Amino acid sequence: MRGLSRSALSVAVDKVSRVPVIEARDLTKVYGELRAVDAISFEVASGESFGLLGPNGAGKSTTMRMIGGTSLRTSGTLLVNGLDPEVNGPEVRANLGVVPQTDNLDGELRARENLVMYGRYFGLPYSYLNPKADELLAFAQLTEKAGEKVDNLSGGMKRRLTIARALVNEPRVLLLDEPTTGLDPQARHILWDRLFRLKEQGVTLIVTTHFMDEAEQLCDRLIVIDHGRIVAEGSPPTLIRQYATREVLELRFGSERNGTLVDQLRDLGRLEVLPDRVLLYTDDGEAALAAVHHRGLVPVTSLVRRSSLEDVFLRLTGRSLID
Amino acid sequence: MTDFVDTNALAYSGRALPAAQQARRVRRWGWWYQAEWRLRGMKAYWTSAVGSSLLTPILYLIAMGVGLGTLVDSGSGGVAGVPYLTFVAPGLLVSTVVMSAGSELTFPVMDGFKWSKLYFARAATAAAPLQVAVGEVVAVGIRFVLEATVFWLILVIAGVVGFGSWPMIAVAALAAMALGTPLMAYAATLEDEGFQFSLVQRFVINPMFLFAGTFFPLESMPIYLQWIGWISPMWHGTQVARLLGFGLPVPGWLVAVHLAFLVALTLGGTVLAARIFTRRLAK
């Protein structure tokens, strides 16, 4: 599935045009003392899949809400399809599909009713909404659950229904705030597959996540946000090339010894010492591991892996994404 | 699972209205979409609402007409020159409808912000927070009118009021809005679990019910308690309903004052609620 999706993505990348769907300049949001979003600037092209990556509280959700005009910016400029969401809220949101961080479906209504009633808020007639709801249920693999009360659906089903709901007005841009948080691995893969299909059809995806694998899977390009500021920007492979080495050697010596061995490893490559393990950045992990053994150091476990966005984040902020 | 739809056409079937047109329609009709949703939600307690709308007046008629009415009428020969049941019935209609404002515009509003967070889902659509607030008011207003109509029909069937008294339906609904919309604005400000509502019920709505001239003329109260009637939408509504029900002598200017008070509270409450909704849904 991973391989298939990758090729689908590369086809889709060709469709990306240069027209910016979103243009943010010095976008800032201050809550009292807290600068939740601190003068960030970015552009998203039509058809692009764009990620906002950062830990909880980095300002990702606030940025998403400002795009939809449901959070008012403190300063800076923001255009969505050329319109200011604070001035032209209905026009901007008619072009957006919003998947919030926590599902806010109507638990009392049936799955199908949720789609139809939500569509009413876009001025869409029942003659359009009734067949559209059936198509969206099929897309979300919920056809059998059409008549089920939403309260009785599983977490993964609710998430897919929320995404289906966001598509009811055929938006050009889909905002996904932590789309797979709380889902099991299988449910995540189903969801990613659905998102790829939308991307193939030219829908612009804007995704916030604190999952590295999700960002690598879904995003053509991303910004890494920390404390409301952009700390890096680029495609996942570019960022990894720029801020990490090709491979990482993970060594566990036990929590007491991890810190004490730093001096003996320093010359082998850049080190990150975490509470449970030591990460050694190198272009050849196996060779580094051999060198470690050669020095008479015997880790409890060791692992050589490819660098990921997790390593990029660690390098940029000195902290891991999920504490 | 089979996809019987062409998922390639899912994003743009070409059947949806263009975004600009969607936005135009919502700018005009957004309030109604919210009302539509709220009325559909009432379906969940439809039977109990209808049941209590039917049962409440019947129980009141029996208790007040047969029970208390007999006692009052034999003791004092009625109130305000009419049998006690005729006197009390318009007040009961108004106060019953006003009482339901205490449930329709408190917890459901809190739910929209706090528990189900459905108002936030609305804010992400093309609708505006102001329209969400107005839609709630409209939907609940429709519910009040239906409730008042049922009550009034029972009074007509029982021969307590005549057909010509039908405007009291609108008066009752208006009185309910006059209490309900400020309550809704208040409910929209609450961040906690809403325990305040039982205090509101006990110390605001119940005294209004008991001291608002529903069961006896307000003038028979000592002057230092009459102010409760004057600030109570129930009393203002009841006085106009009595004029319509049995011709209680109320001068024209006072009718105007009663109605103006109710309209002012309704408009003021709605404007306030709309502002609070806007502030809370677009921080």
Features:
A: 323 residues; alpha/beta; Rossmann fold; Alpha-Beta Plaits; 2 domains; 4-stranded antiparallel beta sheet; 13 strands; 37% helix; B: 283 residues; mainly alpha; 11 helices; elongated
Q: Which chains have the largest interface?
A: A-B, 50 and 47 residues
| SS summary, helix count of chain B | 11
Number of domains of chain A: 2
Measured between the Cα atoms of the first and last residue of chain B, the distance is 42 Å
Q: Say what oligomer this is.
A: heterodimer
Order of helices and strands of chain A: HEEEHEHEHHHEHEHEEHEHHEEHEH
Order of helices and strands of chain B: HHHHHHHHHHH
Task: Enumerate how many helices of chain A there are, as a single number.
Answer: 13
**Strand runs of chain A, count:** 13
What is the name of the CATH topology of the largest domain in chain A?
A: Rossmann fold
TL;DR?
The complex is a heterodimer of chains A (323) and B (283). Chain A is an alpha/beta fold.
Description:
The complex is a heterodimer of chains A (323) and B (283). Chain A has helices at residues 2-14, 60-68, 89-93, 111-120, 126-139, 155-166, 185-200, 212-218, 236-243, 257-260, 262-265, 285-294, 309-317; strands at 20-31, 34-45, 49-53, 75-80, 96-99, 173-177, 204-209, 221-226, 229-234, 247-252, 270-273, 278-282, 301-306. Chain A has 323 residues and is α/β, with parallel strands linked by helices. Chain A has two domains: 2-234, 3-Layer(aba) Sandwich (Rossmann fold), CATH 3.40.50.300; 245-306, 2-Layer Sandwich (Alpha-Beta Plaits), CATH 3.30.70. In chain A, the strands form three sheets. A six-stranded mixed β-sheet of chain A has the order 5-6-7-3-8-9, sandwiched between helices. Chain A has a four-stranded antiparallel β-sheet with strand order 11-12-10-13, with helices on one face. Chain A has a three-stranded antiparallel β-sheet with strand order 2-1-4, with helices on one face. In chain A, helix 7 (185-200) links the parallel strand 6 and strand 7. Chain A is globular, with a radius of gyration of 22 Å. Chain A starts with a helix and ends in a 6-residue tail after the last helix. Residues 1-15 of chain A have low confidence and may be disordered. Helices cover 75% and strands 0% of the residues of chain B. Chain B is built from eleven helices and no strands. Chain B has one domain (29-281). The longest helix of chain B is centred in the N-terminal third of the chain and has 31 residues, at 46-76. In chain B, helix 2 packs across helix 6 (129-157), helix 3 (84-104) runs parallel beside helix 7 and helix 10 crosses helix 11 (252-281). The two termini of chain B are 42 Å apart. With 283 residues, chain B is mainly alpha-helical. The chains are: A alpha/beta (323), B mainly alpha (283). Chains A and B meet through helix 3, helix 4, helix 5 and helix 7 of A and helix 1 and helix 5 of B.
